[in-house]
Amino acid sequence: MALNVLVVDDSSVMRQIIIKTLRLSQLPLGEVHEAPNGQEALKVLDSKWIDLALVDINMPVMDGEEMINRVRQNPATADLPVVIVSTEGSEARKEALIQKGAAFVHKPFTPETLRDAILKTLGGLDE
């Protein structure tokens, strides 16, 4: 099963690093889509089949936390697996996001760390 992934980060360089790391992680990737903020990510989710979202927290226009809130409120995307990829240091904020069903990976990360968080979020993968 190839994963269609949405990478949401306001830094185009960081999006490319995440995508390259995804490719190094040896996960079965399908289409990889990008968005610079939560608002643009919601547009992608409305128009594309996405299996997994990798989301930064601190972004302009709409941050990752608000994006996750809206994803969870929409019946079409409520069960979307989400992995937060961020430098966020607030334990309370991280715990609140985990309670909403998101996994958390700190920047910087390794391909293995990212892969393990994705596999945990997806409950394993049938390759």
What is the fold's blueprint, element by element?
Elements: E1 3-8, H1 12-24, E2 29-35, H2 38-47, E3 52-55, H3 64-73, E4 82-86, H4 91-99, E5 102-106, H5 111-122
Parallel strand pairs: 1-2, 1-3, 3-4, 4-5
Helix pairs in contact: 2-3
In brief:
With 127 residues, the chain is α/β, with parallel strands linked by helices. The chain has helices spanning 12-24, 38-47, 64-73, 91-99, 111-122, and strands at residues 3-8, 29-35, 52-55, 82-86, 102-106.
Based on the model shown, name its key terms.
127 residues; alpha/beta; Rossmann fold; five-stranded parallel beta sheet; 5 helices; 5 strands
Explain this structure.
By secondary structure, the chain is α/β, with parallel strands linked by helices. It has helices at 12-24, 38-47, 64-73, 91-99, 111-122; strands at 3-8, 29-35, 52-55, 82-86, 102-106. The protein has a single domain, classed as Rossmann fold. A five-stranded parallel sheet has the order 2-1-3-4-5, sandwiched between helices. Helix 2 (38-47) packs parallel to helix 3 (64-73). The chain is globular and about 30 Å long. It starts with a strand and ends in a 5-residue tail after the last helix.
